[in-house]
Write a structure and sequence with these properties.
By secondary structure, the chain is an alpha/beta fold. It folds into 4 domains: 8-173, GAF domain (Beta-Lactamase, 2-Layer Sandwich); 181-200 and 330-420, Glucose Oxidase, domain 1; 214-318, PtsI, HPr-binding domain (Enzyme I, Chain A, domain 2, Orthogonal Bundle), CATH 1.10.274; 429-745, Phosphoenolpyruvate-binding domains (TIM Barrel, Alpha-Beta Barrel), CATH 3.20.20.60. Helices cover 46% and strands 17% of the residues. Strands 15, 16, 17, 18, 19, 20, 21, 22 and 23 form a 9-stranded mixed β-sheet that branches. Strands 7-14-13-9-10-11-12-8 form an 8-stranded mixed β-sheet. Strands 3-2-1-6-5-4 form a 6-stranded antiparallel β-sheet. It binds phosphoenolpyruvate (PEP) and magnesium ion. Residues 565, 605, 626, 628-629 line the site of magnesium ion (MG).
Length: 746
């Protein structure tokens, strides 16, 4: 970097800082900025275009173009050279703009006189906010040094835009983060709640993008990088972190942290007038923009590493976001995505959850459903817009989140909450009545659980026991492997809370999206179909054995039900049951009381088990259909991939035919059968399962009321008739036929 440009760039930033500080009006600030840049860089034109909405850029200030064009000239993302700069997030630099690809003539601006064009994206952490443009009559390309200076200014503009420096009376922009915004996502858990935004990853706000004293800033930057390096060295030398995979990640981090070119670039940014944190963000933004367009998975992973490292550095510099912000009173968690373990750490205090990504089939969703916390997924852009503490309404019924709602929306929403509460009260009135259809068929409705905290719902919901107790949730919430004594104490508390009602404990189902921080992660190409659940239990039986012993001790001479997840063939059940027999033997020898009645079951989650030999159905004490997994393997459609998940309806005749086959096989051998996937809790699905012969369903507690309410209003043989007729008619799903019929019943 030649000395002259460094100085120029710093001088330019110095002038900008003075101008920004002396002016309080947004428009005035913008006007001053373009004026200063044009004169400092000796170009005839300098303009700033900012996003008016998601895909419209607006000319917000100009020096050199027609003043009347300001706030009049607009272009779509990708349109013209300005739109191209914003879309590609890359510099567009040309000596012959009118003949450049994509040029669009805007007569109102008078720009036809200018030959050269240089557009630099104004972006913050990969989000495009606008475009900074310089133009000149002379046909010339702008030099790398000039572009660098523009990038430094663009960085400052981005930070100032984010801080709302260009808003206010007469300004082009409405202030960011203050307007009401509605996000249309998808439904993952019904219900409605009102609260305040609680960001899973709070954004770091840089309030001082321009350095007061470059020497001080350089020192701050170097100190922060040193702290970062020492922290990484500590992580690597800490004996607790023996995990080689994790070590590899930290080693990659350390390599980046020690990278001379990374530090050199940030130092140059500071030399040129940016503050230490703005320099970190500038490099992070440029890197993000470059790599997000790379199709290479390895490169994207490196981007994630560098991104994380930059965030660590920013937290060191600003002291922000190093711990979870204090939860507001009615916290609504807003995140890009979240794992089940992290969600469990936040606990039931959350009033709602809104995710940018997320999926209906994920375990985090299952946790939210179990807790009946309204959850909206696929709310694109919300993490960029929401700030900690903003008011937010989560409408899980429609898959919508209203951020900073106005009074009308808020009023209507409160009416909705009141209505839902009344509906819930209606279900309470049938809590103690049987789930009996009009033609006298009685079903057993049980609940799914996974935490002690779920157990109080047993009484409130009217469930007849726990049809699925997911034991892995307790493993997920800790950071080390629980001991046997802890587990047996925990399981005995579960049994005590169940007050004699049956609890079907499922042995550990880890793998797939349930990753334990203290177990060596497995680098598998497709974890959902990989080494998970009983496969781990049989290959490395230590934890399985500990769990089986803990169950027996918890039962303390009373009845005990245990089931094994993800059994794909008879042998696996046989071998797992042999482990149970061994555990019983061991406990007997140790003098512990044995369960008065032991039932050992299998979860049917892969199509193969539906075709297991008769001997399996004779040997197994009960079968529980894990519909979440079964459905994803039946249709070959990832339960966590929203794009494919919804293509196939559970009520597709092919799937119902497969389930009917399981019902028949269990009936033939007198094997008790139940369904415990999420679909059991959806009223129409539950009705159809009952019609094809299921007599036991296990679901999240909040579903028991609605399912029972519907079952009690129908004649099951009639439902069966509708289902059969719809299948015979060749329908792709029986849903429509059943729903249409229901309209006349209720
Ligand atoms: C299922 O797959 O349906 C099931 C109940 O297990 P999980 O959702 O925990 O995988
Ligand atoms: Mg499963």
């Amino acid at each position: 970097m030649p000395e002259r440009i460094e100085t120029e760039s710093r001088k330019l930033l110095g002038r900008l800082r003075t101008a920004l500080a002396t002016s309080s009006e947004g428009q005035d600030r913008l006007d001053k900025v373009v004026n200063i840049i044009a004169s400092s860089m000796q170009t005839e034109v300098c303009s700033i275009y900012l996003f008016r909405d998601e895909d419209t850029l607006e000319l917000c200030a100009t020096e050199g173009l027609q003043a009347e064009a300001v706030h009049q000239t607009r272009m779509k993302l990708g349109e013209g050279l300005v739109g191209r700069t914003a879309r590609t997030k890359r510099v567009v630099n040309t000596a012959d703009a009118p003949n450049a690809k994509g040029f669009r003539y805007m007569p109102e601006t008078g720009e036809e006189r200018y030959s050269s064009f240089c557009g630099v994206p104004v972006q913050r952490l990969g989000d495009a906010l606008g475009v900074l443009v310089v133009q000149s009559k002379a046909a010339r390309e702008f030099s790398p040094d000039e572009i660098y200076a523009l990038e430094v200014v663009a960085m400052v503009l981005a930070e100032m835009t984010e801080l709302g420096a260009f808003t206010g009376e007469g300004a082009a922009l409405s202030a960011r983060h203050v307007q009401p915004v509605m996000f249309k996502g998808s439904i993952a858990q019904e219900g409605a709640s009102e609260g305040q935004v609680f960001l899973h990853e709070p954004r770091v706000v840089v309030t001082n993008p321009i350095a007061d004293d470059p020497d001080v800033e350089l020192q701050r930057l170097r100190d922060a990088v040193d702290t970062l390096r020492v922290g990484l060295d500590d992580l690597l030398s800490d004996n607790k972190n023996t995990d080689t995979e994790q070590k590899k990640v930290f080693e990659a981090y350390r390599m980046f942290a020690n990278s001379k070119s990374w530090l050199a670039r940030m130092e140059a940014d500071v030399e040129n007038g940016l503050s230490a944190e703005a320099a970190v963000e500038k490099e992070q933004s440029l890197f993000r923009a470059r790599l997000s367009q790379s199709g290479d998975a390895y490169m994207r992973e490196r981007m994630a590493d560098l991104d994380d490292l930059s965030n660590r550095l920013l937290r060191i510099l600003t002291g922000q976001g190093s711990g979870a912000a204090d939860m507001p009173e009615n916290p609504i968690l807003v995140a890009r995505n979240i794992g089940p373990g992290e969600l469990l750490e936040y606990g039931k205090a959350l009033k709602g959850i809104v995710l940018e990504d997320g999926s209906v089939g994920s375990h985090a969703t299952i946790v939210a459903r179990a807790w009946a916390i309204p959850l909206v997924i696929n709310a694109k852009g919300i993490t960029r817009e929401a700030l900690n503490g903003d008011t937010i309404l989560v409408d899980g019924e429609q898959g919508i989140a209203h951020l900073r709602p106005d009074d009308t929306v808020q009023g209507a929403f409160r009416d909705k909450i009141a209505m839902l509460t009344r509906a819930q009260e209606r279900y309470t009135s049938i809590r103690d009545l049987p789930a009996q259809t009009k033609d006298g068929v009685t079903l057993s409705l049980q609940m799914n659980a996974g935490l002690i905290a779920d157990l109080p719902s047993l009484e409130g919901s009217g469930a007849e026991g726990v049809g699925l107790f997911r034991t892995e949730l307790q493993f997920l919430v800790r950071n080390q492997m629980p001991r046997r004594a802890e587990l047996s104490a925990l399981y005995s508390r579960v049994l005590a809370a169940a007050k004699g009602q049956r609890v079907a404990f499922r042995t550990l189902d880890i793998g797939s999206d349930k990753v334990l921080s203290y177990m060596k992660p497995n680098d598998e190409p497709n974890p959902a179909m990989g080494w998970r659940a009983i496969r781990v239990g049989l290959d490395k039986p230590g934890v399985l054995r500990m769990q089986l012993q803990a169950f027996i001790r918890a039962a303390n001479g009373g009845p005990l039900s245990v089931m094994f997840p993800f059994i794909a063939q008879y042998d696996e059940f046989h071998d797992a049951k042999a482990e149970m027999d061994k555990a019983m033997d061991r406990e007997r020898k140790l003098g512990h009381p044995l369960p008065s009645d032991l039932k050992v079951g299998a979860m049917l989650e892969t199509p193969s088990l539906g075709y297991a030999p008769d001997a399996f159905f004779k040997e197994v004490d009960f079968v529980s259909v894990g519909g979440n997994d079964l459905k994803q393997f039946f249709f070959a459609a990832d339960r966590e991939n929203e794009r494919v998940r919804k293509r196939y309806d559970t009520l597709n005749p092919a799937f119902l035919g497969f389930l009917s086959n399981i019902v028949d096989r269990c009936n033939t051998h007198g094997t008790p059968l139940s369904f415990c996937g999420e679909d059991a809790g959806r009223p129409i699905e539950a009705l159809v399962f009952a019609a094809i012969g299921f007599r036991s369903l296990s679901m999240r507690p909040a579903s028991i009321g609605p399912v029972k309410h519907l079952l009690r209003r129908v004649d099951l043989s009639e439902v069966r008739g509708i289902v059969d007729a719809s299948i015979a008619a060749g329908d792709q799903s029986v849903r429509r036929a059943v729903a249409d019929w229901l309209v006349y019943q209720i």
